[in-house]
Design brief:
27% of the residues lie in helices and 34% in strands. It is an alpha+beta fold. Helix 5 crosses helix 6. The longest helix has 13 residues. The radius of gyration is 19 Å and the shape is globular. About 10% of the residues have low confidence.
């Protein structure tokens, strides 16, 4: 019965592309617009959808006949992966993370977003916990978390947590020092590479190249 329920849900996902104006700035979404993709289930069935990842709710969303819905907790355990263009996402700790590299060491990107509510007198990254909680609560209660555009005054700060899998162990890093400790690499090697190749931890492709270099 559960498999039938899942199949019905995904059959309804998409037969027509989501007609969204490119002028809308999706500051709390990973992609600039909802994009055709494929949801691959663990039973290897494939379901086509128009998808995007919400950085605030940390959910993979799909557009079903003009209504934005989430691949929720009741379904996510049955999902093997999500393919959007050339990008692949897998489930980790109940969330979707992007696969950046596979091999002796697997590299993943976990996309998140900080939120600053209107009238908060502080810069990015310095809002207090109470203000942040109020901001999230306001968006959730008003159903605005899934809107394409946040209400006026709300600001976002996207950031990325990186994960490396070695054997069965997953380890998180967000900077060069933490990566160096995980890979037991010499600081001089990492620093010289970063200077020469302009490694930016906001740019997953440069982090992937750095990890690839350190694996050689």
């Amino acid at each position: 019965m559960k498999k039938l329920y899942l199949s019905v849900i995904f059959i309804l996902l998409v037969t027509t592309l989501f007609a969204q104006s490119r002028t809308v700035e999706l500051t709390h979404y990973l992609l600039p617009e909802f994009t055709p993709g494929t949801v691959i289930m663990k039973d290897r069935s494939q379901n086509f959808a128009v998808l995007n990842y919400n950085l605030l709710s940390e959910e993979m969303l799909f557009n079903q006949r003009g209504k934005i819905l989430a691949i929720g907790a009741d379904i996510i355990d049955s999902v093997d992966s999500v393919i959007i263009g050339e990008r692949r996402f897998v489930v980790f700790n109940g969330k979707f993370i992007e696969v950046l590299m596979e091999g002796d060491k697997n590299l993943y990107a976990e996309y998140k977003c900080s939120l600053i509510m209107p009238g908060t007198p502080s810069a990015y990254g310095t809002t207090n916990e109470t203000a942040s909680t109020k901001a999230y609560s306001a968006l959730y209660s008003g159903g605005m978390m899934y809107e394409l555009k946040l209400p006026d005054g709300y600001k976002t700060r996207p950031y990325i947590n990186y994960w490396i899998k070695q054997g069965y162990k997953m380890e998180k890093f967000v900077n060069i020092k933490q990566l160096s400790k995980i890979l037991k690499a010499k600081d001089s090697n990492i620093k010289s590479y970063c200077r020469a190749n302009k490694v930016d931890f906001k740019n997953p492709s440069t982090v992937r190249s750095l990890v690839d270099f350190l694996n050689q």
